[in-house]
Structure formats: C-alpha cells, structure tokens
Amino acid sequence: MRDASGGYVQSRQLGARRPVRRGPLLGLALLVASAAGCSSNGTSPGVAEPGAVSGSTTTTEALRPGAVATTRMPVRGGVLSVGVLAAPLGLDPIVAAGDGAGGGDEMLAIYDSLLRYDPATGNYEPRLAQSLTSNADRTVWTITLRSGVLFSDGTVFDAEAVKFGLDRHRAGQPGAPACETLRACPSNAQASASSMAFVQAIDVTGPLTLNVTLTVPWTDFAWLLATEPGMIPSPTGVRAKCAAERAARPAECSFNRAPVGAGPFVITSFTPGESTFVSRNDRYWDGAPFLDGVRFSVSADAGADKSVDALTSGALDVAYLRDQRAVVAALGKRLPGRSIVLDAGATELMNMGAGGSMPATRYLRVRQAIAAAIDPSVVQERVTGSRAGSSADLFGTTRDLSPGAPGQVYDPERARALVAEAKSNGWNGKVRYLCDNSPSGQARAIAIETMLKAVDIEPVIDTTKDAAGVGNVLAVTKDFDLVCASLGFVADAASGKSDGSTLAALTRQLVSTSTTNAIGWQNSRVDAAVLALRAARTESERRQATQVIVEESVIDVPFVVTGAPQLYVAYTTKVRGVLATAGSRVLLDDAWLASTPSG
C-alpha cells in the first residue's frame, strides 16, 4: 500500500505467524507483498487483504507438491538430519557462501532472518523485522524491528546490532565503516558484496528503526534482508571472539566456528568439512522450536544416488539433490519436497580473456562455432537419460522474467564453416573443456566432446577435478577455454516465480565491473539492462531488461545454455513444518518429525 509520501509500505499484523505452535485459537495474518508482486499495469504492490485462519491443530505437510491439510498434532523432540551439498567454510554470514546447499540453512537456524521470502506467492513476510517501507523512488528503505528480541547470549537485538550486521557485508567498500570495527578485514569477499555495493549509507534513527540509503532504485530490496545480509550476528559475540586488527580474518576467527545469533537454534558443534549440529534455543522470540536439534552433514555424493538411498533408509530426513538422475529417482519414489528450477543451470561458459588470459575462446568465431555445435537436448539426454529440461533459453522457465527471445541455435553446418574460417586465420582447432568429476559432470563432458569433434574441433577434456577444483579454476586461475558451470537463475518450479537471487547472479557474474565476472564479458548494454532490472516495477519492464541481456548474449556468445536442471529439496514422509524461503534455503523453527510417516 502507499503511505502519504507515495512510498512503498511493507507491514503485517504480528503474533500469528505460526499458528501451529500457538494453540487452538488462531488469528489473522497479513502477508507482505514484494515488488515482485507488482501488477503489470504499474500499480504499487501492497499488503494483501487479511484472511481468517482457524482450526485447532491444522498444519501442512512439508513442501509436498499438492499437499493437503492434516490434523496431526506436532510432536516435540527428535533430531532432524539434513544432507547438504557442500560444507560451509564457517558459520559467519560473511564467510559461508550461503544458500540452502552451502551453509544458508545452518545460518538461518542460528541467526533467523529479517524477512522471509515466500516462493509460492512472491511475497515477503516479517520475521525479525516488523515492517519495511520505502520512499517513492525505492532509494531509501526504513526497517522497523520487532521489540523484545534477544540474541542467544542475552544481549539486545536492536537497530545498532542490525546496522553492525549489514555493514559487515559492506566491509572494504567506499563509505563503509573501517573493517577493523566490523571485524571484517580486509573486505567482504562473499557474493553479498556485489549487492551491498548499492548501499550508500545505513543510519540508525531509533532503538528499533534504521534507514538504508541506496545509490540506485532497487524495487526488490527486501530480498537482501531474506538472505545472508539479513542474518544478523550478535555484535557482542563477534567483538568478543574476533580481534580488532586489520590482519585478523573472519574465517580464522573463533566466531566463525561458534557463532551467536537470535535464531531458533544455538550452535553445539561445527566440524569443518563434515558437519554442524545445532540445539533448540529455548529463548527464541517466537517460542522454542519443536525439534531438540538439527544435524547438517555433507552428502556422500553431492546430492546423487547415495543421498536418495540415505533418505529411503532413514539415515537422512532431508537432502539436497542436484544430480538429475537422483532427482528423477526421488520423484519416482514419491519423496515429498520442493523443486527449484535453475534457469541456465547447465551452462558452458566461455573464457573471453578474463584476468588477462589468452584462451582460444577470446576469438568470436571460435565461440560462435562452439555454440552452433552444441545441441542442448543431446547434453540433457546424456546427463539425465531424458531430453526433458533441455533448453537454450537464458530465462526459459521464469515466468516473470522470460522475454521469449531465442537463445543460441544448434546448427552443425554453420559450426563447421565457422571452424574452417577460424582455422584459416591461425587457430589450431583445439579447445580445452573443463568439467567436474561427478557422474553428471563426466556425462556432460562426453556429450560436449562428441559434438565438438563432429564439427572438426579438437576438444581437450579435463574431468579430474571436483566441483571445488573447477570453481577455483573459474574464479582464480582462469586456465580454461570452456567450462561446465551454472548461472543458476532460481525459479520455483510450482509457481514459476523468481526471487532476487536472479538479479544478484546477473550482477555478480555478468556485469562488466564485477570482480566475480569470471569470463571477462564486457558489455555496456548488459550493464545498463541489469540496472534497469533492479529498478523495474512491472513485469513488462523486467522483460524488457532481460530481452536486452538475451539479445546481447546471442551476439557476443559468452556462454551456451544447455539446460534448466532441477534442484530438489527432498524429505522423508515423517518431516513436517519445513518452510521454504529465498533461493533454496529453508527455515526449520516450525519443523517437526511425525511418529509415523504420511501416506
């Protein structure tokens, strides 16, 4: 709704967020509408009409497609076992990579978040923040916090604490406080830094209020507060465990292993590279969780067949499945869960000379030849056994972003002509292709190798590295021509809605000035389009921006999109009350384990 100044207001009645825990009398709830909920005619998003919620013990089975209400009474106790794809580097929000597969769930359990994104509706709900309002042009946002909240160390969760937490994600950027005062030296090197670069100032205006001033309009700013920057650490805990020295590094600080937040759980143990265990926080602001604790452990096979076996045997209660054959197997076993489509989640990135490197793919004709040689459906069939999910479209399944513009076109005859032309200009015909050593990575490499050979390109294949090793080459050494990767624009499979992670990924990976632009693509029209997408208020404006990005990618050929794979967050049938939020992250404060599985 609009306030008197024409600004954008996000607010909601409090006290009825989780009726299951509150007992038989349930209240009214107002969902916070996000900028993603703007209507296409340009009207302002606002607060949804309140709807009555009633029933003594009604809940919904955890994220199950087509789930129906059940009257089972929540059970207290038990430990939830979660299999994650990668071990986080720590549990400090400026150290862990975040998202559900790499530390995001663990940190949400410890810190909670200021807001929650609802992937089914595209709306935001208050959590530690009570409301979020903006001025008319979306350049100043006011956060009002919930009163009476304490960190698990007993200190007060207030506006100064939130400013401290947010500023740590700005560490090292112009206008940010000195990194020593934030215990964040020399700078924040995580993905959140690219988004926080748009923050000009953070000013405390009251015990529970603060203003965030941006350098540009940002319609979906709320997304930031549902992700790592919105996971606020105890300033007292950080200062007590981390030295105020420029030489001190957050990753080496003891807070990174024993963090303090205001979330529903507290840290019990953190074993680097292996597991994290959290226990119930009885002082949590919304009441103690049902579970005694949660154990997060790294899946034995990075979300493939062994993870499915662990679910069916009961060794895991929740698992992130990334391998596409494992996703198919889980669905075949009717395991409940949430499906997330990653538009451009299977992408062959081309090195255009990043970091001063001299790859064969710095030449346009070579990139054009590679793109014309690759048939996305062949790649998908080799990887998954089915051509379903193959796509050359950058934003293919994201309903609110897809412009309908075509991507690269498979044309082997054109590819051969381009190869011949490039060879006549001195190219030796060789291309180095790097992919990880997982079963799907090796299958993908075989498909690419076969198609490149068919058009007279000589591929040099490397599948000796794990995913972390491939990531190091991509981010640091730049010793590649072509690499299997993921741009990973998140869309909820059921709703087709995207969240702010797509804008963040575009900013981080494709904007010319980004320090994490790993392929060296420099395109001023794309840079302008990403800024336009940040300010866009209507679906039409968003699609105009993404159309420019698609068109320029077809001209410059910085990558070839081969598929939109699924990430499946799978559950056993005993799991209840898991709540999806931004990206693939989940909230576990209302999770519980039924004594018997559902049908």
Automatic annotation (TrEMBL):
GO terms for cellular component: ATP-binding cassette (ABC) transporter complex; periplasmic space. Coiled coil: none annotated. It holds the Pfam family SBP_bac_5. One of its GO terms (biological process) is peptide transport. Residues 124-488 form the Solute-binding protein family domain. InterPro entries: Peptide/Ni-bd, SBP_5, SBP_5_dom. This is Unannotated protein. It comes from freshwater metagenome. The lineage of its organism: unclassified sequences, metagenomes, ecological metagenomes.
